Amino acid sequence: MYSLLSVWTPVALYFLRASATPSPHVGPLFARQIDRNDKNYYIGYHGDDFETPYAKYFNATQPTLSEEFISGLQESPYPHDLTVDISDAPKALNQPGYLELENGFSRLSDGSLSLTIHTEAPSGLTGEMLDWWFSWHTNDTRKYKLWNPGAHQYAAINPIAKEKSSQKSYSERYWNVTSFVDEYIGTTPYKLSISFFEPSLMGFSKENNESGVLGMVSAFVSLFQYEDQNIAQAKQGLGPLTAVLVHQLRRKPNGRGNEFRSRFWFGNLLVAGMSVAGGSEKLAHDLSVHCFNEMSHLGTFLPGLFEEFKMDVSVGY
Ligand SMILES: *[C@@H]1O[C@H](CO)[C@@H](O)[C@H](O)[C@H]1NC(C)=O
Ligand SMILES: *[C@@H]1O[C@H](CO)[C@@H](O)[C@H](O)[C@H]1NC(C)=O
Ligand SMILES: *[C@@H]1O[C@H](CO)[C@@H](O)[C@H](O)[C@H]1NC(C)=O
Ligand SMILES: *[C@@H]1O[C@H](CO)[C@@H](O)[C@H](O)[C@H]1NC(C)=O
Fold first, then answer.
1. 216-272 pLDDT per residue, tens
2. Is 231 close to ligand 2, i.e. is its CB under 6 Å away?
3. 188-197: strand order across its sheet
4. Ligand 1 lined by 59 (C-beta under 6 Å)
5. Phi, psi (degrees; rounded to nearest 5) at 148
6. Where are the alpha helices (DSSP H) in 102-235?
7. What positions does the domain DAPG hydrolase PhiG occupy (predicted)?
8. Which of 29-43, 135-149, 300-314 shows the lowest per-residue confidence on average (mean pLDDT)?
9. N or C: which end of the chain has fewer CB within 10 A?
10. Which ligand 4 atom is nearest residue 317's CA?
11. Mean pLDDT, residues 148-155
12. Measured in angstroms, how far is the CA atom of residue 126 from the centroid of ligand 3?
């Protein structure tokens, strides 16, 4: 039953999106560097992949899901008043302590869908490392695969001007960059375009010493195709056909290490498209597990990887 849903959901959504968005512009550079042929994709490392200088950070062991996370998923969907609308999220996520829902998903009253995922991070993981990771991993599939060895298949970016890719601040190297990736979410491979934007464009704080916020990554996610996105839309918030993700890195309120609070919001038309196919809850479930795995796993290798490769500044071609 699930396999049928997971086939139909992408198909229905693809047509919904195709009818609502103009076809993406594909310039010559784009065509040269982005491999759209998923026959070339595979999960994990094979052969030569192990010869990169960072291959020693490839660790195929999957994290163990936490009890809080599992029970959050089991009890989902939650009533909408337990969750936070994207327009209230910047303020809510900036408060000390926890919100009512830190694990689980929910349909909001406007029909949008919200996912919340909580994971642990080591105390040595800093906001600087997080920014460096997002500036570094996007240009090479083998880097991207370190993050989720059981699901990631492909990653590439369009050319980035040298002035941008070698900016002093790690964040300015990846804000406004779109990462084209292919990855399994549950049993279905998805092509995604993840466009990173400066969190303050939507009102999110990147740092707040009082509430322990150490870092924040935010992006638009577009499903099923590789397309550059207009970052200016960040000022308008969540559109009916858009999806937004944020990962907040924070000191844990109990002082024992750090934590990630990840959130996804899917616009109501996007959710309606999934629901017609019966699949929005299945995708919410699978994406939550996927996110749990990668955010937990990131903390196991990022401090070491950063120490070794932080000078490897220029991502690009
Ligand atoms: C490998 O990854 C698993 C899951 O994230 C983790 O529990 C384990 O500590 C990692 N091993 C090493 C050597 O980092
Ligand atoms: C990102 O794009 C916005 C909107 O075009 C622009 O204002 C901003 O300066 C850009 N930031 C970076 C770091 O490229
Ligand atoms: C930030 O918060 C920590 C922990 O509460 C505290 O030890 C430190 O002094 C604060 N730093 C600044 C610059 O306020
Ligand atoms: C990605 O960027 C690095 C620098 O960090 C560069 O050495 C490498 O060649 C780039 N990879 C690809 C596939 O272009």
1. 999 999 888 888 877 777 777 788 888 999 999 999 999 999 999 999 999 999 898
2. yes
3. 104-107, 113-121, 258-266, 243-251, 213-223, 188-197, 178-185, 152-157
4. yes
5. -145, 80
6. 127-136, 141-147, 162-165, 170-174
7. 86-307
8. 29-43
9. N
10. 14
11. 97
12. 14
**Is the CB of residue 175 below 6 angstroms from any atom belonging to ligand 2?**
yes
Q: Where are the domains of the chain?
A: 2-309
- For residue 296, the CA-to-ligand 1 centroid distance in Å is 9
CA distance 215 to 205: 8
Instruction: Take residue 76 and report the two structure tokens written for it.
Output: 């989902």
C-alpha of residue 39 to centroid of ligand 2, in Å:
35
Query: For residues 230 and 203, which has the higher predicted lDDT (pLDDT)?
Result: 203
Nearest CA-CA partner of 222 in 203, 248, 204, 196: 196
Q: Does domain 2-309 have CATH number 3.40.640.10?
A: no
Residue with tokens 């809510």: 92
Q: Ligand 2 centroid vs 82 CA: distance in angstroms? A: 34
